[in-house]
Design brief:
By secondary structure, the chain is of the alpha/beta class. The chain folds into two domains: about 20-150 and about 285-335, Rossmann fold; about 155-285, 3-Layer(aba) Sandwich (Rossmann fold). The chain has ten helices and 14 strands. The strands form four sheets. The protein has a six-stranded parallel β-sheet, sandwiched between helices. A four-stranded parallel β-sheet has the order 7-6-8-9, sandwiched between helices. The chain has a two-stranded antiparallel sheet with strand order 10-14. The structure holds alpha-L-rhamnopyranose. The site of alpha-L-rhamnopyranose has 14 residues, from helix 8.
């Protein structure tokens, strides 16, 4: 666990100047997506105005992460807004990126549904002075200033593969229920999971990978279809909070409950009842609220000119402490946590 430290005096000065600039601009917080339109473009004297764009709205994971972002932006005296599409499709975020850039947002914080599809919109935003921070799911590196990574992809993949292996006696058929087919984060984890399976679990056979598009009903239906298509299925890995919750809901009332294991990445609040009723033994996640907090502080440090996003840059993320930019403009939050019946009551997100 990361040691908690207080914000530095330097950041306090930055906070004050941002607060003064905001007062001058007279813009209150808004959830409507209309950003500040003070006409400046990315200079350090500009009021902080950060636009969060999740993969899709109505996803409790992003509700938690963006709440962390809102709190951090407001603690810095800035204006926060959240806008985004209803569906997690590749280019659905483009219009929101364009609007944020036209309104001269200081920074966009975005989780990408596709590594390329939003690239030219982000490039234009950067050219007009808006800093671009990806978090949770990255784009190709040239389209953003920083990527805030929740945990190492290797650690996330291994936790899920070892988890399903433990639950099915390290042998038998499994399937993956993912998010959108092009999602950068899920696809990176799936590639690593396949490698882990091949290297460490030769008796587990991955028979199918299906996509629920981070949509509850689609994920529910795909779970039903998986069980029908693969009658010998022993386990499902769902590396998406939407997918695992929908799959758990399906399993909890089906005759496969307790016979087909389910693990993956979920939020404790969505999964609590399925751990309690025995549908799910264990699943994994990092703290999405902390991820949003870290992304917001990184965005503010970029917008304020305190960092440029190069390797070795250092900044402070409020009570989360100090962070250093690593290779490829990536900042790492920490390790994933395992949730099961012994600890799930301790978490509320
Ligand atoms: C869903 C989204 C998100 C992912 C989590 C685990 O909420 O796909 O990008 O990080 O699951």
């Amino acid at each position: 666990m990361r040691t908690l430290t207080r914000r530095t005096a330097t950041l306090g000065v930055a906070t004050l100047s941002l607060a003064l600039a905001l007062t001058a601009c007279g813009k209150a917080d808004t959830d409507s997506g209309s950003g500040s339109s003070d006409g400046a473009s990315g200079s350090s004297s500009k009021a902080l105005n950060v636009v969060f764009i999740p993969k899709n709205l109505g996803n409790p994971y992003f509700d938690a992460s963006d709440a962390g972002g809102k709190k951090a932006v407001e603690a810095l005296g800035g204006t926060y807004s959240e806008v985004g599409p209803q569906t997690a499709s590749p280019d659905a975020q483009v219009q929101y990126i364009n609007t944020a850039a036209q309104q001269h947002a200081s920074a966009i914080v975005i989780s990408a549904n596709d590594p390329k599809a939003i690239g030219s919109a982000l490039t234009q935003a950067k050219q007009s002075g808006t800093k671009v921070v990806t978090f949770d799911s990255d784009t190709e590196a040239q389209y953003r200033d920083l990527f805030i990574n929740q945990a190492s992809p290797e650690g996330i993949a291994k936790a899920q593969v070892d988890g399903i292996a433990k639950q099915i006696g390290d042998s038998g058929e499994i399937a993956i229920l993912s998010a959108a087919a092009n999602a950068t984060n899920q696809n990176a984890w799936i590639d690593l999971m396949k490698k882990d399976l091949a290297a460490d679990h030769p008796n587990i056979k991955l028979v199918d990978t299906v996509y629920g598009n981070d949509d509850d009903q689609t994920s529910f239906d795909k779970t039903a279809a998986l069980l029908q298509t693969h009658p010998n299925l022993k386990g499902i890995i769902s590396p998406t909070t939407v997918g695992i919750a929908a799959a758990a809901r399906y399993l909890s009332t089906s005759k496969a409950k307790g016979k087909v294991a389910l693990t993956g990445l979920g939020t404790p609040n969505q999964m609590r009842k399925f751990v309690t009723d025995g549908t799910v033994a264990e699943f994994y996640l990092w703290n999405p609220t902390d991820l949003g907090t870290l992304a917001a502080y990184a965005a503010a440090a970029l917008a304020d000119g305190k960092i440029t996003g190069k390797e070795g840059d250092k900044f402070t993320a409020g009570e989360l402490g100090d962070f250093t930019v690593g290779a490829d403009g990536t900042v790492l939050l920490g390790d994933p946590t395992a949730f099961n019946k012994d600890n799930i009551a301790d978490f509320n997100f």
